[in-house]
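User: Before I run my own analysis I want an independent prediction to cross-check against. Here's the chain; please return only the structure tokens and, at the end, one sentence I can use as a sanity check.
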Amino acid sequence: MLSFLGLVSGIGLLILGGTFLVRGASEVAAKLGVSPLIVGLTVVGFGTSAPELFINVIGALRGETDLAFGNVVGSNISNLALVLGIAAVVSPLKLHGQIVRREVPLLLLATTFIIVMVLDRPLEHMPSMIERSESIVLLLLFCIFIYITVNDFVRARQGDQTHVDQLVVDLEIHQAALLKHDGRYRWLLVFGGFVLLFVGGELTVNNGTALATSFGVPTTIIGLFIVAVGTSMPELVTSLIAAIRGESDLALGNVVGSNIFNSLIVLPASGLIAQISLPEWGIADLVVSWALTALLIPVFIFGEGRLDRKLGVFLLLVYCGYTVVRVSGAM
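Assistant: Structure tokens:
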């Protein structure tokens, strides 16, 4: 019971720390004259995935790579199935701009790269793992993604650019209202955010491992279905608000962007510290993440660009079914 409370407390501190970091860093960047668009691409994107990053780095330093792997893949799956499913049920998502139409295939490509990386060693009769050299390749792919994204924004048509700028401004209105204080307050938020992320990461890793031991389940399961869902709460809240307000591009872009960050920053950051050995069923988890991403291709690329309530319910059923199969298989 104490381990569970400690785990919940750790996740709560991670979410609070990520929120403080986004608010403080956004205001500091604005004071330095950084474009709101760039702030949205970097600070907001990093802040919503900061809990996953801190958990994985601390887990890798402690040798808990199963928890780190489960956190990343579980977060990606919960974002695609749980978060998008709930958002679509609340309000059907209609894609308007071209930005997400490019990011979805990029996410599919990134997931495919990871699957290929973990399959090459079994072909040579060696255990599956993500090596340090492969982590460097993933980080380089992220640099390419950032370059393409920024270049796309710069060259975007004025209509699309105005729409995207408005999405970023809307996302940060509530932050700006709380930040009309002096510079010391902003930096205090940034510092406090990092402290909360570190303490929350320590609590999450320690108590997550203890909880897995007490229940006799692999730490990967704790990472997949407790830690991952908890750290996906910022994405869920953002996507729900965006869906209710009819900002479908923001709802989907928030999820896809977070998954790209998880795959190309959070996972390789852990892999640079300690090579990540794939747990049992690890390849299956990656395939599920890939399949959920691939499902979005015909919906948003070749179809009418609409994720309706029926598809939302289907995604939620897929997530529930996957949870039952995965947990029962580990017991």
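Sanity check: Residues 158 and 164 are 10 Å apart (CA to CA).
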